[in-house]
Amino acid sequence: MPGGDPAAAGEGRAGARGAAPRRFAAAARRGRGPRVVSCAVLLAVAITAGSVAVGGGRDEGRAGTADVAPAAVAGVLGGGDLGAGIRSLQGHLRAQPRDFGGWATLGTAYVEQARTQGDPSRYPQAERALERSLALEPGNEQALAGQAALAAARHDFTGALAYADRALKQNPYSERALCSRIDALVELGRYEEAAGAAATADRRRPGVPVFTRYAYVRELRGDVRTAREVLQRALDSASSPADVAYVATALGQLAWNQGEYGTALTYYARALAADDDHLPALEGRARAQAASGDRAGAVETLEQIVVRSPLPGPLVALGELYEDRGTDGDRAKAHDQYALVDAWTALARSGGVDADLDTALAAADHGDAGEALRAARAEWDRRHSVHTADALAWALHVNGRDEEALPYARRATATGYRNAAFLYHRGMIEKATGHDRAAHGSLNAALELNPGFSPLGARAARAALKELEAAR
After folding, report:
1. 138, 137, 207: which is closest to 178 by C-alpha?
2. pLDDT tens digits along 365-390
3. Phi-psi region of 222 (alpha: psi -120 to 50; beta: other; left: phi over 0)
């Protein structure tokens, strides 16, 4: 069947959890070696990719535009057992293969499945399903909005913006397209436009998906108070367990970024009470545990997570904790985690994901400095976000080009975004360029904001501060 046979795609939850780690392990054995990726940046990207999918399940399109899928799969993207919903939708499409709306929903569901299972091989399946929808009904809004979500998940944010704009021309109230448009503008570094897009989306389709994006735009501009208020409003209005888990996790991450570990743990507990299987909340809880001094609990939680979902964020967090602990065999264990990060990057590329940002930071920390700079420049050519500015600054730094790095490090912190890793990178670059007073301020700010932002980074920041103070 053109566009992919629905009977051949989709796995049950248990099977997928076993299949993804096996694919990562095989790729790691074929990989080029360990690559350690910055926890903070990868987590930010992960949150953005996740928000693309979460916003997608509540817009059913305009009445009469497509055959209606069965009730069992009508809310396939809104929470619950995604695998079961996909299987039901596949059965529906076998019976009604010309339902272009069903194909669009299936494609977007595959995007969500790729995110939740850490399996980029789902993206080509999503692409085929969305193309099938467009072949049946050229230019239909549901498929265009799905393509926007797919492009964003693959880090093609220029493409995501174009697809979202095309969908919104047909239906200005498409929640999925409104949300993907915000995501794309954020990741392209067009923050003023993103703020306008968030305000427009809030007028047209107020609700949890829009509230969470509005909050992130405010956080990126340094307005943590408003971000917290908006997320709390989103949590208060959340009705499904999936929404409660998602928003509570976002509140936990916001608190963790500010070094408020007790508050973060409270929100992660709220998320896990709604969904005890919510991996981002488990990962966030592990980070907060580690920063609070419960390293053993953090390691145990992360070990459980990476068996089920070997994504870069938890892999790197676990590797850093192993390195920081430093007992017998921990270096080898950390090496194994970093090798799987490299495997994830390879699989992501095979699924059509632009992984240059990941590659830049990975190679800068534990790899080829020249490759780090190549990847960072390539990413900067595509988008000018604070995250790419930080990555390029750090890649230039490890190549000994600190005078070139400093303007990018300053740009990464210019919006007011309170990120300890960015401040740490800026401080180390300022130190290397002889701006000792500024370096002291940046490194102190990083540790005062979030002293547990990274076990290894925090250690390096403290060591650099001691050197600066000794030189006074």
Report:
1. 207
2. 767 889 889 999 999 999 999 999 99
3. left
